[in-house]
Write a structure and sequence with these properties.
CATH topology: Rossmann fold
Order of helices and strands: EEHEEEHEHEHEHEH
Radius of gyration: 17 Å
CATH class: Alpha Beta
Number of strands: 9
Number of helices: 6
CATH architecture: 3-Layer(aba) Sandwich
Structural class: alpha/beta
Oligomer: single chain
Shape: globular
Number of domains: 1
Low-confidence stretches: 219-224
Length: 224
């Protein structure tokens, strides 16, 4: 019997896609991460529907791993799988950093709000924890806080809006409660909302995100 193959990884360059609406006078950057099997366009529409987002720099970043949606043949994406997980996280964080540097073009925009849906929630938390911004906030809808972020990493966040639908079978009440406890243990200011709906970003969630932008982000940080 022949010996088994050697498994290894090698870094490579790959192009990522994002959508952006830069504003010269904006004092808040709103950065979005879509769910599994979605595209940057989906999350951009969600960001654009948040009341008050018209005064923000909007950036929606698409996962690097693209595929065709079977039913529609639309190109969609995923952020990562469990294979080579740590390498994928590092790749994604470098990618996000590159997008922000490109869009903001060296200008300082603070605070930065990282907004994720479903699979994109973990990326929103990771990007926020790794951000150099002094004021970093997270809007998390229908997805869990990634396990590798410890209390110290979460404590760097300024505030979090975390939401789930009452009928969400993927992001259960048990996981939601554990995530809220982890954030509060890290002494993060948390707005935890359970709203009617399933695994979705509803109009009610957009309204809640608008209140969060106005009350927890803009006013609390002194942005105008």
């Amino acid at each position: 019997m022949q010996s088994p193959p050697i498994e290894a990884s090698i870094p490579t360059a790959i192009h990522g896609r994002y959508l952006a609406r830069p504003l010269r006078s904006a004092s808040v950057a709103l950065v979005g991460f879509h769910g599994y099997g979605e595209a940057a366009d989906d999350q951009f529409r969600r960001l654009d529907a948040i009341p008050g987002s018209d005064a923000c720099v909007l950036i929606s970043i698409q996962g690097l791993h693209r595929f065709y949606e079977r039913r529609t043949d639309r190109v969609v994406a995923s952020w990562m799988t469990r294979q080579d997980r740590d390498l994928a996280i590092a790749d994604n964080l470098a990618y996000v950093s590159g997008v922000l540097q490109t869009v903001l073009n060296g200008t300082t925009v603070e605070p930065v709000v990282f907004a994720g849906f479903s699979q994109g929630v973990a990326m929103a938390f990771r990007a926020a924890a790794a951000s150099a911004s002094r004021r970093r906030h997270v809007i998390a809808v229908g997805g869990d806080v990634p396990p590798e972020l410890d209390t110290a990493a979460l404590a760097a966040l300024s505030s979090v809006l975390i939401c789930r639908g009452t009928d969400d079978v993927f992001y259960t009440a048990e996981i939601f409660d554990k995530d809220v406890s982890r954030l509060r243990d890290a002494r993060v200011r948390v707005d935890a909302l359970t709203l009617p709906g399933a695994h979705e970003w509803s109009a009610a969630i957009s309204d809640a995100a608008g209140h969060f932008l106005r009350d927890s982000v803009t006013i609390a940080t002194g942005a105008v």
